[in-house]
Design brief:
Elements lengths: L4 H12 L4 E5 L5 H7 L8 E6 L3 H6 L5 H7 L4 H15 L3 E7 L14 E8 L2 E8 L4 H21 L15 H4 L5 E3 L1 E7 L2 E9 L2 E4 L2 E8 L6 E7 L5 E7 L4 E9 L5
């Protein structure tokens, strides 16, 4: 039986820390739970999951508020977070993952195209949600979403504790780092396949900047140290170098503000 190395790594971390996990799935239809339970011994940490394919099940079983579904829709960060919180409460676990999106090939709109997926994680530290825009077929979009959910969980499990550094009043965050060069930033990207995103916009100095064009791209390192580099321009002609680390799914701004694009 083929097992996902990432699912195995996540399982080992959960066991080491004596943490339990549950999942709430919509567009992946149980695929995330399949990856998790393909690992022998997963019953030690995996409690179960809910395939909430309809909005009615999201509301009745996972307690997603009706007004959230009405105002934001089933495919939204608000619904993904509510699903994660709901299944965590329902199954009384330490950690919960939720996936909701549009796998295709139909069902997309101008505002919410095919391939749009939101993945959320709920824990005692709060909630986190990531947005993806896949460009695969139905199977690829579902498979990539399941893997992205495992990556989100893995990032959470290997992240330093917020209380690790006694000199920090609050943990390092995307918002606090947004003004620092070489620090982590929020990026809206389209994923043509896992690990190979195309940046569409990024948050800089408190506001979102659309990417007008992508110039030179290159990669450094390999394996877990692989980094993709992008020279991007904004509508105001400022040029930034963005980096993306596939192993951690983190974006950073390395430098920015010049006026010349490197082709």
């Amino acid at each position: 039986m083929n097992t996902d190395p990432l699912a195995r790594a996540v399982g080992e971390l959960l066991q080491q820390r004596h943490l339990t996990l549950a999942v709430a799935e919509s567009c992946t239809g149980g695929l995330l739970a399949t990856h998790i339970t393909n690992i022998p011994g997963s019953s030690a940490y995996f409690e179960g999951g809910v395939v909430a394919y309809s909005s009615d099940v999201k509301e009745r079983v996972l307690n997603v508020p009706a007004d959230v579904l009405e105002q934001h829709g089933a495919v939204s960060p608000e619904t993904a977070i509510a699903m994660a919180k709901g299944v965590r409460q329902l199954l009384q676990v330490d950690l919960a993952l939720a996936v909701t999106g549009i796998a295709g090939p139909t069902g997309g709109t101008a505002d919410k195209p095919v391939g749009l997926v939101y993945i959320a994680l709920a824990s005692d530290q709060g909630e986190e949600c990531r947005r993806y825009l896949w460009a695969g077929d139905r199977w690829e979009n579902r498979e990539w979403s399941a893997r992205a959910a495992l990556e989100l969980l893995h990032d959470h499990l290997i992240a330093p504790s917020p209380r690790q550094d006694p000199g920090e009043d609050v943990p390092p965050s995307v918002e606090r780092a947004k003004d620092a060069r070489g620090m982590q930033v929020e990026v809206d990207a389209r994923f043509e396949k896992p690990g190979h995103p195309v940046p569409l916009a990024f948050k800089w100095r408190g506001r979102w900047l659309p990417v007008a064009s992508v110039g030179r791209t290159w990669s450094t390192g390999q394996g877990k140290k692989l980094v993709h580099h992008y020279m991007v321009s904004t509508p105001g002609e400022a040029v930034f170098e963005l980096t993306f680390e596939p192993a951690t799914m983190r974006w950073r701004v390395v430098r920015g503000g010049t006026k010349h694009m490197v082709a």
